[in-house]
Q: What sequence folds into this?
């Protein structure tokens, strides 16, 4: 009988998890407890995790990144639609240029506007990626 070859693992080794073994309690007034639960819910966390992040995190800010990430995805979809429209306009201008129905000045003006748009979108994408890296 042939021996079966062992498959290589295609996934990463399991990440070492931090097990929370120690317990710390503190007292709150009823209003403070309600405020803590409300803020934790807004951040999409349970109260224990929210309090731990608020105390231990050097950034000092705890929020739910899901709406921001969803906004970035919506932005990406809008940019894709704009890119599609620009592609259609470019094809039409090239057609008009080949047919001799437009002058060189209009083509150069369109190319300059297109270049300006690409520069702005590149800068915006750079800022978005920078901000998303901060969330990780």
A:
């Amino acid at each position: 009988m042939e021996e079966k070859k062992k498959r290589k693992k295609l996934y990463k080794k399991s990440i070492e998890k931090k097990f929370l073994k120690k317990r710390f309690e503190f007292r709150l007034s009823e209003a403070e407890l309600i405020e803590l639960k409300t803020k934790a819910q807004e951040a999409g966390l349970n109260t224990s995790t929210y309090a731990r992040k608020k105390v231990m995190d050097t950034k000092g800010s705890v929020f739910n990144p899901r709406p921001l990430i969803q906004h970035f995805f919506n932005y990406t979809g809008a940019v894709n639609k704009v890119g599609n429209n620009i592609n259609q306009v470019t094809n039409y201008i090239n057609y008009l240029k080949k047919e001799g129905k437009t002058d060189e000045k209009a083509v150069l003006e369109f190319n300059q506007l297109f270049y300006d748009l690409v520069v702005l979108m590149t800068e915006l994408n750079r800022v978005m990626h920078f901000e998303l890296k901060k969330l990780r």
Notes: Helices lie at 30-42, 47-56, 66-99, 104-135.
